[in-house]
Structure formats: C-alpha cells, structure tokens
Amino acid sequence: MLVHAYPGYPGQVHGEAKTPEERLHRERRELGVDHALVGGVLARRWGLPARLAAAIERHHADDVHGEAALIRLADMLAHYSQGQAIEPARMLKVARELGLDAVKLRSVMYELPYPGQGQQRRQIDPCPLSAREVEVLKRLAEGKVYKQIALELNLSTSTVRTHLHNTYAKVGAVDRAQAVLIATQRGWI
C-alpha cells in the first residue's frame, strides 16, 4: 500500500536506516504514518478480527505483548533471514515476552535459511555455554569485575572465576576480551 501511495517508498523514505526500528522512525517522520498503522487499517477494512488488526497495528510498540509480540518476533526473524540488521537485545526481549529464552531463540534462528539461498541453513554455532556462564560473561562484557559479578549473581568470586575459565576453554579464548568478542560475534550474548 505504501509503495503505491508514496513514490520512492521504501528506498527514499528509509534512506540509510539499517534496523526495522530506524525504518519505522523514518516512515513516521517522512510520511506521518508507518506500515504497522497502515496494516492495522487495512486489516479492519478487510473485515479481519479487531484483535488481529490491533496486533498488527501495535507490533512495533515498545511495550509489545501477546499477539503483537508474536507478529513483532516474526517480523524481526523475517528481517534477519533476509540479511537485514536487527537489534539482538530487542529481539531477545520480545522472544522472552513470548516465553522463549535465548537458547530457544537461537534454535529458531539456526533454522532460518540464508538470504536468497533457498533451503540452505545458517551456520550459527549453538552456544556451548551454560545459562550461568552466559550470565557471567554478559556482565563481564558490561565491564564488570569478578567481585561485582559475584555480588549481582549471589556467587563467590572464585565461582565467577571458575565459570569464566570454563567459558574461555569452551569458546577457545585466551582472555576475557577474546571471550566477549567471540560470544558477541556468534550471538550468544
């Protein structure tokens, strides 16, 4: 609908926007409307249930939940499968709203095909780390020291040290910086 109503959509409207959120912001700024709102209006016009129309309309809301969260996650996964940028933390937040943890989300992402490659699957390494090791590594990535991590997770500093040394061995890292880099690049944190 927006392609027909606005010459230059999406290319000129989206410009250099990389993530779905940036594209949505540009739509609102340039057009005064966004594709989610248009989708909700069309759903109502076509006689689809009001609940579905509302979910379509709200799927980009910051406080997304329920059916709108399901549509939002599907939208994010579609962008990801097309090789477009998404914000991993935002995707995980939406997934958690739907009861999916990081491990389940990674499993879904692993099954997505490469852009334009038919059924070829992405080569995303499954995360070898335990949930606790991931939590410790996330805090390390935030620049926290062992003592801070231990306090936040109610652990001893030696337990934090053990988790991190196990993490380094599992990911093949020689130090904390390399472990954080590897885990970030592979989407584990």
Secondary structure topology:
Elements lengths: L1 H4 L5 H4 L5 H12 L3 H11 L4 H9 L7 H16 L6 H10 L4 H9 L20 H11 L4 H8 L3 H15 L4 H10 L4
Helix pairs in contact: 4-5, 5-6, 6-7, 9-11, 9-12, 10-11, 11-12
Structural commentary:
By secondary structure, the chain is mainly alpha-helical. It folds into two domains: 2-110, no CATH class; 131-185, Winged helix-like DNA-binding domain superfamily/Winged helix DNA-binding domain (Arc Repressor Mutant, subunit A, Orthogonal Bundle), CATH 1.10.10. It has twelve helices and no strands. The chain is elongated and about 60 Å long. The relative contact order is 0.07. The model is unreliable at 117-123 (pLDDT under 50).
Number of helices in the DSSP assignment: 12
Instruction: Work out the number of β strands.
Output: 0
Please indicate the percent range of residues in DSSP E strands (runs of 2 or more).
under 5%
Derived structural class = mainly alpha
Order of helices and strands: HHHHHHHHHHHH
Total of domains: 2
Mean pLDDT, nearest integer? 85
Indicate the low-confidence ranges by residue numbers: 117-123
The outline comes out as elongated
Give helix % range: 55-70%
Largest sheet: none
Q: What's the N-to-C terminus distance?
A: 37 Å
Radius of gyration: 20 Å
Assembly state of the chains shown:
single chain
